[in-house]
Design goal:
Blueprint (H helix, E strand, L loop, with lengths): L2 H5 L7 H10 L3 H5 L17 H15 L3 E5 L7 H14 L4 E5 L12 E5 L2 E6 L1 H6 L4 H9 L2 E2 L2 E2 L1
Parallel strand pairs: 1-2
Antiparallel strand pairs: 3-4, 5-6
Length: 156
């Protein structure tokens, strides 16, 4: 179907709202250059990159003004640039939304309000990123340090 249908299958939103969601999801320029809302999305989105497919899904959530959004490894198969675009979109447009992020890329969760560390199906710790990263005995601190991830510009 068309991009319009993929974003808004029930036809509840006008064209300006669709473009707003695409722009917020960093896809506006790409689709403006490629037939706009009439862009034909192939079965399983095969004519879009993995990152573009993820951003279309995010645009759909932005358009619906979703109150609860679950992201299960949403950026695991995308490059770092697309990952950053997803994080920026979440920060800019989903501030009034509960976002549950399941991720192995640790930098993906550093801007979260709360982090739940699960090991072999059991919760081992819960806290804000700052709380967990200032406790050098925390599992999260160990994972971030081992991965060499920076937090507020400093490597842990």
């Amino acid at each position: 179907g068309t991009l319009r249908f993929n974003l808004d299958p029930t036809g509840q939103h006008d064209t300006s709202e669709l473009w707003w969601a695409l722009n917020e999801s960093h896809l506006g320029d790409f689709f403006r250059e490629n037939r706009g809302l009439d862009f034909e999305v192939e079965e399983n989105g095969l004519n879009l990159s993995v990152g573009q497919r993820q951003l279309v899904c995010l645009a759909r959530a932005v358009l619906r003004r979703t109150k609860i959004l679950m992201l299960d490894e949403a950026t695991a198969s995308v490059d770092m640039n697309t990952d950053l675009l997803v994080q920026q979109t979440l920060s800019d447009t989903m501030s009034g939304c509960t976002v549950l992020t399941i991720a192995h890329r640790l930098h993906t969760v550093l801007s979260s309000d709360r982090i739940v560390v699960i090991d072999q199906g059991s919760v081992v710790e819960v806290g804000s990123p700052t709380e967990l990263l200032t406790d050098t005995t925390s599992s999260f601190y160990g994972m971030v340090r081992e991965a060499g991830v920076e937090f507020h510009g400093a490597e842990v």
